Fold:
Amino acid sequence: MAITLRSRKEIELIRKAGAIVADVLLKLQEIAKPGVTTGYLDAVASQMAADAGAQTLFKGVRNPASRIPFPGAICASINEQVVHGIPSDNTKLKDGDILGIDFGTRVDGYCGDAAVTIAVGKISEDKQLLLDVTRRTLDIAIAAAAPNVKWSQVAAKMQDYAESAGFSVVKDFVGHGIGKQMHEEPRVPNFVSNALLADDIVLTEGMVIAVEPMINAGTCDVRTLENGWTVVTKDGKNSAHFEHTIAIVENGCEVLTVSSGRPSYAKGFASGEGPSRSPEK
Structure:
């Protein structure tokens, strides 16, 4: 497993891409209201990226399970859709939906990637709890990530928290290294497995990873729709997804997908309180 450690200059270039991602996600949160289509959100994201001189990462990506490359700049996943929801002018948001938006850009050869799940209108208490727990699961990872920490220790904290709240952690999809490519080594799971324990990741200064817990209200089992892209929960229950790109630095980690104009793209996101977090005591 070849993991590339990034220089401070490279980390700043990733931060530049990450700021555009965060700005776009902030804007989409503002306009994602009942009656708005996910296709419109996709168009706004595409235009904002172009205006910022950025290339979007997802559009055109190929998948062996699908005959078509991914058609959107964003992934727009509603309710039971876990990831890779396809934006469409025919899909209107409804009051009470939860919408997971995943977005990535490349700027000057370096990538940033982040996701947020938002409430559309007024949502149920159950859905709000799912969002809160998933957001907090990511916060826990950010607080624990630091040099010389084994990823299995971080993943255990994430899994324990989510499962103690009565939810399940998706096993089929995990986080990843990121840099010049959207997906690089290492694979970054949100749970502990025998495979992880056998080949653990020791966090090292200069490592840049995209951490993205996907948490389900019911079973962790998922399936892919006939379009070959959209992943849904097998039991039809809701799912939430939050993601940040982070860099491991001397005293902890830095969140790189933070808006240039605001402290964080996700309201109430603890990891947005400052650019650097120290490991939990």
